[in-house]
Every structure is written in C-alpha cells, then in structure tokens.
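Q: Got a minute? One more chain.
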Amino acid sequence: MSLVRIALRICAVQALKGRTLVGENVLDSEIGALETTADGALQTPKEKQFVSVYADDTEQVSGLGIRSLIANGKVDLVFEAGVASAHVTSDPVTDEQVLMAGLPATDANFEFYLDITLRQIADAIADPENEWAAILNSLIIRFEKCKRARISGDTNGIRLAAHQIKLTVEAVAEPVTGQPLKPGSPMETFFAKCESDLIAREPDMAGKIEVMLKQIAGNNEDLIAAMRRYGMVYTEADAMLLTPAEGIAP
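A: Always. Here it is, folded:
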C-alpha cells in the first residue's frame, strides 16, 4: 500500500552499502535471512555476514489521512545483522579461524562484530554527508522509539548470533495519485536520486521505480486530487460545495 515504506527500505539499504563490516551484503526485506527451525533452533541460509533491512508493523493515526489511506503513521524500520560460524574464514598467514583479519572466531568476537556493525549502521544513518541517509531522514517526520535486541543459537555445531535495531518512526504521508510531486519534496528527491544514481548501479531497480511512478500518475485536476487526498466521494464534495454548480462527471 505504501510507496513511502518502499522508499524507506531502498534508502536505508543504499545508505548502508559499503559502510559496515558486511560491505555490500545489505539485503532488502530478506526476513528469511534468519530462520527458526521446527524444533526452535536458529539458522541462516546466508553464506556470509549480512545486514537485512525491512519495514515491519505500521500503525496509522486517526484523522482524515486514514480515510484516504495516505497517512503512513508509525512504521517500524528494522535493521538485523547476523553472523554464523559458517561465515568463518581462515587467516592466510596464521591459518587461524577468523571472522575478519585479526578477529578470531570466538563467541565474544561474534558479539563484538555485531556491536560494531550496529554502531556503523547508526553512524551511516546519521551521516550528514551520506546522500541516501539524508533522503531517508527526510522521509521521517520524527523518531519515536529505538529498541535493540539480540538472539543466538547453536544448531549441529553451527553457532549463529544476530543483533537488531528497531526504529519506530513517523513517516511522511503518501504522495497523492495524479498530484505532481513538489520540487525538493522528499519523494521527488528520492525518485531523482534513484534515476541519477541507483538505476545506473543496479539496473534491475529500474522496473520497480517505474511501477512506483506509474502508481502516482493520473488525473492532476485540482478537485480530483483534493478528493483523493481526503478520501471524499462526489456526494460529499457536493455537500461541502467543493464541486462546480454544474457538477463534474464521476
């Protein structure tokens, strides 16, 4: 339903790529990156350390925004970092099992690795020189809450640990179908950045951006746009004397 939720995820993923210990392995909505087996064990199908970004629960507030379904309300934006013993490599010099150079694959270092990764996530999101982070923050009216959590497990001798940041944010409202995006608005800036940067690096994103833009194209007549914005039907617009005296064709 929400183009803004999609934009939040894309911006978050792009803001993190190359800025944490996982490098480019930042995943969009791959919730299955961490799985719980039937017997309750934790596992991951991923072949190397990762960060997964997804938008979780949404709670819309009361008011006219709900009727037209353009108010996004509060959104849980989740960052999940995971590392498993299957991700361990051998140091080419010492032949020691390591998570990365100089970091032996111990339980304490699993936690160290994840703590550093989450700190890097926070730094990347707050970096004023990170253009994707700046757009991400422009799509957020306010940060309501931040919650951290951790999980770990051992399945058939394979250790796995994950840390999570859950940001509850109030997101901007949806762009109204048929209403041109205002220059410099968060969503207009987002689409411009996608076309000037993202699509060139990740051509497979072109189709998604095209679908998003088509969703808000259409009749840009002011009255129709206003009715969409507030979720009105024609009889309501007539009763509020918003329509011309001769009426308009539905």
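A: The chain has a mean pLDDT of 80.
Q: Perfect, thanks.
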